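In this notation, each integer encodes one residue's backbone shape. One such record reads:

___
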Amino acid sequence: MRVRVLGCSGGIGGRHLRTTSLLVDRDILIDAGTGLADLPLAELAAIDHVFITHSHLDHIAALPLMIDSVADLRERPLTIHATAATLETIRSHVFNWAIWPDFSEIAIRDRPVMRYSPVTVGQKLVLGERSITAVPAEHTVPAVGYHLDSGAGSLVFTGDTTVNDQLWPVVNRIGNLRYLIIETAFSNREEALARISKHLCPRMLGEELAKLTIPAEIYVTHLKPAQIGLIMDEIAGIAGVVRPQILQNDQVLDF
């Protein structure tokens, strides 16, 4: 499997700052933040599955525009995978005809444009030789992360989450784990805000990574744009953990 980072920022503010979106091979998308908008039309049309971690705008902002842009280029419906609660929020507040057309009710040349597919934590979806499994997340709205497994290796993307004791027993059982992408939205000076908004800061990140008992390359994502330097300096100062690297736009992870 190949994961290309289209966006990994906690905000916008220039070409290097795009919100969360990960392209898996050519046909799978994890979240649909503003980074998705940089793909050319042909690459957008090649995406068959979109896995959404949660309903916050920075993770779904480009989804309505993407579906509208490629609807008449596709031969089969685009499948949106998310928890039932997340799908209901997207259906009620985005694809509701007031904000955007409900493409699950629209057909072009007698072909449905979009369909919803609910996922639950622990549920494995097999796509060819690849599998994607929803893993626990703890956020202000219903949320999950995803475990991507090629057979040869695995990647875990936590999505937006805070202290999450349910996650680590799941991760620690992954025998072929190569990569862990974990959020760290705020600096330590904003720890109170991180806890209220159910995100992580470097101090909390260190406590969470201490629960990881198997080796992996660790990347941090979702940093607030004005605090990137400070957050990474604080992460570098965490004693006793493998120093995580910052995830970068256009980075490619093979496994």
Remarks:
- Residues 2-254 form a domain with the Metallo-beta-lactamase; Chain A fold (CATH 3.60.15.10).
